[in-house]
Amino acid sequence: MSDIITIENLSKSYASGVHSLHDVSLSIRKGELFALLGPNGAGKTTLISIICGLTKITHGHIQVGGYDIIHQYREARSKIGLVPQEITIDIFDSPWKTVRFSRSLFGLPNNDDYIEELLKSLSLWDKRNQKMITLSGGMKRRVMIAKALAHEPQVLFLDEPTAGVDVELRQSMWEQIRTLKSNGVTIILTTHYIEEAEEMADRIGILNNGQLVLVEDKQTLMQRMSTKQVSIELKDPLATLPNTLTPFHVSLHEHKFIKMRYDFEQETHTIADVLDTLKQNNLTYVDIQTEQDSLEDIFVRLTKS
Amino acid sequence: MRLQSIFTIYKAELLRMRRTLIQSIVAPILSTSLYFIVFGSAIGSHINEIDGIGYGSFIVPGLIMLSVLTQSISTGSFGIYFPRFNGTIYEILSAPMSYIEVVIAYVGAATSKAFLIGLLILATSFAFTPVSIQNPGLMLVFLVLTCITFSLFGFMIGIWAGNFEKLQIIPALVITPLTFLGGSFYSISMLPPFWETVSLFNPVVYLISGFRWSFYGQGDVSLTTSFVMIGVFLSVSLIITHWIFKTGYRLKP
């Protein structure tokens, strides 16, 4: 898969002296859904704003579709659609007018059939002539997406698209994002909802204090970084753990549960080894439960370290 | 040059003007008509001619300039301030447009509106007082240059302003007094010598004088001086606008 965005050694410092990004290098593959995670102030929005031309670069180079965003900004920006974090629309306009405006702003000829299709796909067609002031927050957010897609971009930036929306609408937006991806649009998503990234992303990047601390395929990340916790429930209570279990780094809870954190990559012992040892010590168990770290657990671990 | 993108913003700005038709067009025409009634007809009938021109006719260029300056600045500033205020500026800044195209679109729309209002006020003045235009071509050139220069000035205010109060502060506290003291209602030669000299530091004097020259073939300063001064204002405005976009002042952090 070829890269559609390449970021090389990007740094950003504001006039106030705040350093928002430090030497960030990243490639986004064509057609993927890339989730950019990070705590507040990590630099996610700054990174997106720089790529879209809203914020100046302090140092580094960015190309979109092979075009430098500074020297070939027209070609680069033509390929980008942006849905900012805040709902920013002219409340006196209608969805139809504002989406047509966005398309025309990018220098494309009118294509009412495309805009009709777009508004229908976002369930906005019935509201196309209503003033935006009368629309719900969720609909306004969909209008923002329609505006970003008005010029048929190859790359779509969604800066926390589901922030503050209810569960039902969030699910519906996830569905729309999947549809966009299936249509070949490359999507870069920032979100605070880790389950959103877990649900949809192909790859995940984590920004912390302006540094890209990790970029990984989601499945690989889950496998590589995730630890499992195994809880073995004993039939009879136990006062202390037998010495033979010490090498397995297990712990006894409530005299009845033996718990063991299990790391796929680093652990040299297997669960079977523990169970065998229990058997050798004539300890009978009645239940085994396992829990795996979620992406959120991994995220918290990475951003706190 | 992306003409379609420019025209898109230009058209949207003019449509906004249509949406606020009364505030945009009717209000300035009404207030200028009131000036004509009060200063031109009521008080003016008791005032002697100035430089051989009836007082009602004398104030026509100044009153047109008063409205044109105010409208150019308010439309130019509001046009760019409103998207900054409601956040929709992101769409303009992320569009594949050069800053020159953005300036042409916004300033062009403000210029068009101010120019139209100038012509409408001129037409209105015919209903109140006899008006002759000795050099219509020159009058139009002056009107257009003034509209462009002050729309550009308004555009800069719209970028500088951090709130609605600041948006109003320069037009209210600087431009309006300068216009009133710039010879809208009198010739600066009527002032005592000291104040006449002080008036020459008022840039609006040169605009009104040049504009009046195109009507009646005479003004407070020479036509060339007026042209040079408006050229200077326009150049300074262009340089500052270039600096704004080059540095990203209040637009791109």
Relative helix content of chain A: 25-40%
Strand content of chain B: under 5%
Record field, number of beta strands of chain A: 14
CATH class of the largest domain in chain A: Alpha Beta
Give the distance, in angstroms, between the N- and C-terminal Cα atoms of chain A: 32 Å
Mean residue pLDDT of chain A: 89
- How many strands appear in the DSSP assignment of chain B? 0
Distance between the termini of chain B: 25 Å
- What strand order characterises the main sheet of chain A? 6-7-8-3-9-10
Look at the structure and name the CATH superfamily of the largest domain in chain A.
P-loop containing nucleotide triphosphate hydrolases
Quick check: average pLDDT of chain B?
Answer: 91
What is the oligomeric state here? heterodimer
Q: What's the number of helices of chain A?
A: 10
- Rg over alpha carbons of chain A: 25 Å
Largest sheet of chain B: none
Secondary-structure element sequence of chain B? HHHHHHHHHH
Largest interface: A-B, 31 and 22 residues
Shape of chain A: elongated
Task: Write the element-wise H/E pattern of chain A from the N-terminal end onward.
Answer: EEEHEEHEHHHEHEHEEHEEEHEH
Beta-strand residue fraction of chain A: 25-35%
Key terms:
heterodimer; A: 305 residues; alpha/beta; Rossmann fold; Alpha-Beta Plaits; 2 domains; six-stranded mixed beta sheet; four-stranded antiparallel beta sheet; 10 helices; 29% strand; elongated; B: 253 residues; mainly alpha; globular
How would you portray this structure in words?
The complex is a heterodimer of chains A (305) and B (253). By secondary structure, chain A is α/β, with parallel strands linked by helices. Chain A folds into 2 domains: 3-223, 3-Layer(aba) Sandwich (Rossmann fold), CATH 3.40.50; 226-304, Alpha-Beta Plaits (2-Layer Sandwich), CATH 3.30.70. The mean pLDDT of chain A is 89. In chain A, helix 3 packs across helix 4 (112-121) and helix 3 (95-105) packs parallel to helix 5. In chain A, a hairpin with a 2-residue loop joins strand 9 (203-208) and strand 10. In chain A, the strands form 3 sheets. A 6-stranded mixed sheet of chain A has the order 6-7-8-3-9-10, sandwiched between helices. Chain A has 10 helices and 14 strands. By secondary structure, chain B is an all-alpha fold. Chain B has one domain. Chain B has helices at 3-19, 21-43, 55-86, 89-93, 99-125, 136-160, 164-180, 193-199, 203-216, 223-247. In chain B, helix 3 (55-86) packs parallel to helix 6. The two termini of chain B are 25 Å apart. The model of chain B has no long low-confidence stretch (mean pLDDT 91). The chains are: A alpha/beta (305), B mainly alpha (253). The A-B interface holds A 14-15, 52-56, 73-78, 80, 82, 84, 86, 88-92, 101-102, 104-109, 147 and B 2, 4-5, 8-9, 12, 19, 86-88, 90-98, 248, 252-253.
